[in-house]
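Late entry, written up from scratch paper. The run itself happened at the end of the previous shift, but nothing got recorded in the book at the time, so transcribing now.
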Amino acid sequence: MFKFKSIRNEDLILDQKGFKYLYDSYWEKVFAVCYHNTDDAELAKEMTQSIFLSIWERRKILRFQKSYEQYLVRAAKLKVAEHFRNQAIRKKHLDHATENFCDAANYTEEDVNYSLLAAALNLLVDQLPRRCQEVFKLSRKEGMTNIAISQKLQVSERSIVFHIIIALAFLI
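Output as recorded:
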């Protein structure tokens, strides 16, 4: 199969040259983990690119506790799990929507009610502090996980949970 040379954390600085070395050394391994779990080459490539993009974007704040290889393999497994979780959520919502689909007259009334409710919710969300709004929208409207939000905003996961609790308390 593949042979990989292990890189010690202290031997690699994540500047452009170090990142290129990390990418060249581990791209195939990360791709293999993603492909093995999805059986979809294009999806595995996208996941692999996403993982390395995330590392590059967070290179100044990342601190590796274990080897780069262990970190990247774990990141690949988490990315696959996130994909399947999001896929299951989308399927659940689609199933729920088709299950509760009603005739056109009721649908129109429900659509109007939904639009009014959504507008009222958006007005309330706009009253939240900026960071709280951002976290709430990423969580509830885009369906991102707390971990993904914390990585995107470069804050702790605990901070994300705090912002969601504040937003929900305000909206209730």
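The radius of gyration is 21 Å.
(Scratch paper discarded after transcription.)
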